[in-house]
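Hypothesis: this fold can be encoded by more than one sequence.
Test: take the structure tokens below, design a sequence, compare later.
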């Protein structure tokens, strides 16, 4: 770990004895496809990869950024075939700009991602691609910069996938936090602190301790720190390394997927590493409260009242709504100790968001229309789709409890009431809650996504950090 991705470089000269890839598009733009290539029968649809002896054609659709991501991913998958070459030169068309290169490289780097625990020899993967551009003054440098950024974003996504895909017999709170700390130690300017259950008890992290109390593998709290100047961004990620639902136990069907319930925490870890590697002039802190939600005699119960960091109390009504319990502690910790200019939490939080937005779009909750728009724009820039959801005033009263300050899982629209609960712990800081329950996992391959953990959210966080560093 992390999984090695395809290397991509930009150059002005093709290599000898390396297959060339000719790009073709749909509609009237579907041309001859290069000298000596018969394009009859081709559609130019994004991702249509066809071998012609020692040359390939690759459909790029209408040339949208989504089409270029899909094309890059499809090419790498095609080259991963048993008898296919493991490198190729892609002949860029004159209209290729930096944004197109970022999209293509992102797709190529992630399309060949593979995670499998096996005793068999791993298949040989594509080693490298070279993007061939015109020998224009300075243009190669511009495209190279775009390719490097795309590869950094892809690396953040791939690491998030690695962490989320790791099975939970390996991945417990200790493993997740120490792995992140080990990776952080390799990056200049990034530091990591891991706190154990004793520290959590001393500091009053009642939510994390309650959720983790049912497991023999105790909770941890990860704090990643980068930078000392510029706006201070704090990213908080849910780090539930396995979720049985606790006493409010989940149905057996689908429970195996709960190894990815820390995908939000993985996104924060991946993003912090990428921000540090890119040396962005901004200050970023990543907080990942980690716990395993298990069933045992020491598990927390419906009806319990839990005291969070900072003193606020929550009446527990459903132990399967554990993500908001650990996030509440971390948000309160950030507000009290870190003086953030921006606070963003990201979590696989509610099944309700799958119903609302499906499996490819994340939900954004924020009282600030401007901040919500920034998240949506950041996602669009890096190929992640978000939709702003409302914090409906008529449901605010439902978060109140008769025997505590707040009710953990009030009635009403589940995604909205969960966000309203978290808002209580965000104080007056500019805050956004990102619910990625839908797009964090996929059951099938599409575009640059493969089955399993998708790594969704990491790229958006990096892009947000880059925006605030300008």
């Amino acid at each position: 770990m992390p999984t090695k991705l395809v290397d991509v470089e930009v150059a002005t000269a093709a290599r000898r004895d390396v297959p060339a890839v000719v790009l073709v598009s749909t509609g009237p733009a579907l041309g001859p496809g290069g000298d000596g290539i018969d394009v009859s029968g081709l559609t130019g649809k994004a991702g249509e990869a066809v071998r012609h002896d020692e040359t390939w054609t690759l459909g790029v659709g209408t040339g949208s950024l989504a089409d270029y991501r899909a094309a890059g991913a499809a090419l790498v998958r095609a080259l991963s075939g048993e008898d296919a070459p493991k490198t190729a030169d892609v002949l860029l068309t004159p209209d290729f700009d930096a944004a197109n290169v970022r999209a293509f490289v992102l797709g190529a780097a992630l399309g060949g991602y593979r995670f499998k625990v096996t005793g068999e020899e791993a298949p040989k993967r594509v080693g490298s691609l070279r993007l061939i551009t015109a020998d224009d003054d300075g243009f190669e440098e511009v495209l190279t910069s775009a390719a490097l950024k795309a590869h950094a974003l892809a690396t953040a996504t791939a690491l998030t996938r690695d962490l989320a895909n790791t099975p939970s017999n390996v991945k417990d709170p200790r493993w997740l936090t120490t792995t992140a700390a080990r990776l952080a130690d390799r990056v200049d300017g990034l530091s990591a602190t891991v706190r154990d259950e004793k520290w959590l008890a001393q500091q009053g992290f009642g939510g994390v301790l309650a959720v983790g109390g049912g497991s023999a593998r105790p909770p941890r709290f990860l704090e990643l720190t980068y930078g000392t100047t510029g706006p201070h961004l704090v990213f908080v990620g849910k780090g539930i390394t396995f979720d049985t639902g606790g006493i409010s136990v989940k149905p057996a069907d689908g429970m195996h997927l709960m190894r990815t319930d820390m995908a939000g925490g993985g996104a924060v870890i991946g993003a912090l590493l990428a921000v540090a590697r890119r040396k962005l002039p901004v200050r970023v802190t990543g907080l990942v409260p980690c716990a395993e939600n298990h069933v045992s005699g020491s598990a927390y119960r419906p009806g319990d009242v839990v005291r969070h960091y900072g003193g606020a109390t929550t009446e527990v009504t459903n132990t399967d709504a554990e993500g908001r319990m650990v996030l509440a502690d971390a948000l309160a910790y950030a507000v009290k100790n870190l003086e953030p200019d921006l606070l963003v939490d990201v979590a696989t939080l509610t099944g309700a968001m799958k119903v609302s937005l499906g499996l490819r779009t994340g939900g954004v909750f924020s009282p600030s229309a401007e901040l919500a728009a920034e998240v949506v724009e950041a996602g669009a820039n890096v190929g992640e789709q978000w939709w702003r959801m409302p914090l409906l005033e008529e449901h605010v009263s439902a978060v109140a409890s008769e025997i505590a300050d707040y009710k953990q899982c009030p009635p009403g629209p589940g995604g909205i009431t969960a966000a309203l609960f978290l808002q209580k712990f965000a104080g007056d800081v500019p805050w956004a809650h990102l619910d990625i329950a839908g797009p964090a996992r996929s059951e099938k391959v599409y575009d640059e996504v493969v089955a399993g953990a998708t790594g969704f959210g990491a790229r958006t966080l990096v892009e947000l950090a880059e925006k605030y560093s300008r």
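The first strand starts at residue 7 and ends at 11. The chain has a mean pLDDT of 94.
Hypothesis status: open.
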